[in-house]
Design goal:
By secondary structure, the chain is of the alpha/beta class. It contains 15 helices and 13 strands.
Length: about 425
């Protein structure tokens, strides 16, 4: 197995890969949440299995699988578990986990003025389980939970005794989490902001989730009140079914399959990518893809995209590069580098890409690591670019994606003047419009 353990990027605390439920660094506390576990030995060669299910194809590189293997679950048993859960998910979602399309989009490349030997390669995640990439992050947590349960390593005795899952989200992650929970008849509490759409709320209720709307309380510090209520639920015994690495490191495990899958498809097409533009809210998506990109050399540049209406990562990256030791020292300067949006008077987060308006980029350390390793950049897209990217996707593609799901392309639109016509760049479209 490729994964050998866990190590906190901040304090260096290590845990064995055989540790059940290794969600957070053991030294993290309510008073000190500035810790995040990272997988040790996580780079996977692009060559992998040919199964269409990424959790089968990339079994050897996944932390949940290494945990199961450490407790005697052989590859046949692991893959049987993946296939069983995948079938249960498909029965609810209408599709299981499959490799999603990745190809040059000629019309989009032409619209953006690329040359024939350059262009835009699109990875379309809207056909993924629950309509976005979020289910990939969460399925690795679910696999770990079910493996621990079947091995007798979970703190509950049977499926009937399972504690509820908990997640904070304004949309796609909540839908993905509730879809997976419904497939396994696992109770789940979802913490959403007051401005969550009626369509999202209706979908969550149909999936049987306990929906908690979280207005900001006078006693709340700066930051997301949904996250605060989620943390309270976890403190009371809920399982963190989260898409923020500091809350559950295993969400970064399944997320890496998206990057590996993209590199594998590019290699099969004889394409060497120059840059990959990834939208950033809480940051798990870009941190996962950025880690996966380093499986090849030279790695494509990670271009982390935020909107001008909420860009906490941009400031953190600027401050990290200004440290005496550069970005390599960033993890030890969490409070100095990553500041909650609004704390410096920026105002309330706002953008048509409302699914990435996280007050804090929770997985900023993983993104900073990937930016430094790949020579990447943070792109702050003006709202005009956010709207233009969404219009372009609607006009020249068949992809039904929200403005959040096209925000990676907004970064390319904003940075196009500095991208050569012959470059080969990739964007990931994720998040269907209709729920």
């Amino acid at each position: 197995m490729n994964i050998t353990g866990w190590r906190c990027a901040v304090c260096g605390t290590e845990q064995g890969i055989d540790t059940p439920l290794p969600w957070r660094c053991p030294r993290a506390s309510g008073a000190d949440r500035h810790h995040v576990l990272q997988a040790v030995g996580s780079t996977l060669p692009v060559a992998a299995g040919h199964d269409p299910n990424p959790f089968v194809a990339f079994d050897q590189g996944l932390a949940w699988a290494a945990f199961a293997a450490a407790h005697g679950m052989d590859v046949d048993a692991r893959l049987a578990l993946v296939r069983r859960l995948d079938a249960e998910v498909a029965a609810v979602a209408g599709t299981g986990f499959r490799a999603t399309p990745f190809a040059r989009h000629d019309a989009l490349s032409d619209a953006l003025g690329f040359a024939a030997d350059g262009g835009v390669w699109v990875k379309d995640e809207t056909g993924n389980v629950a309509g976005s990439q979020k289910a990939r992050h969460l399925f690795s947590i679910l696999l770990h939970l079910c493996a621990a349960e079947s091995l007798g390593l979970a703190p509950w005795r049977s499926p009937a005794d399972r504690p509820r899952l908990a997640i904070s989200s304004c949309g796609n992650a909540a839908i993905a989490a509730s879809t997976l929970a419904a497939a396994l008849h696992w109770p789940i509490a979802v913490f959403v902001p007051p401005w969550a759409s009626d369509a999202v709320l209706a979908r969550l209720h149909r999936l049987g989730a306990e929906v908690n709307v979280c207005p900001r309380l006078d006693t709340d510090p700066p930051g997301d009140p949904c996250v605060y209520r989620f943390r309270e639920a976890v403190a009371a015994g809920a399982l963190p079914f989260a898409v923020q690495g500091p809350e559950n490191a295993l969400c970064l495990d399944g997320g890496r399959t998206i990057g590996w899958e993209m590199l594998t498809a590019a290699a099969a097409q004889g394409v060497v990518l120059d840059r990959v533009f990834v939208q950033v809210g809480g940051g798990a998506f870009a941190a996962s893809v950025g880690a996966a990109l380093q499986a090849v050399s030279p790695a494509p540049q990670l271009m982390a995209v935020q909107t001008e209406g909420c860009a906490p990562l941009a400031g953190a990256w600027q401050r990290a590069t200004a440290l005496p030791g550069g970005p390599a020292e960033a993890a030890r300067h969490w409070g100095e580098c990553m500041r909650v949006w609004g704390a410096d008077g920026e105002g309330e987060p706002h953008s048509a890409a409302d699914g990435i308006l996280d007050d804090e980029t929770y997985d900023w350390i993983g993104i900073v690591d990937a930016l430094a390793a790949t020579g990447g950049e943070v792109v702050v897209a003006p709202e005009t670019a956010v709207l233009e990217a969404h219009r372009l996707v609607q006009a020249v593609t068949q992809v039904d994606a929200t403005a959040t799901g096209t925000a990676g392309l907004a970064g390319l639109v904003a940075a196009r003047v500095s991208v050569a016509d012959t470059e080969r760049v990739a964007v990931i479209l994720s998040g269907v419009t209709r729920h």
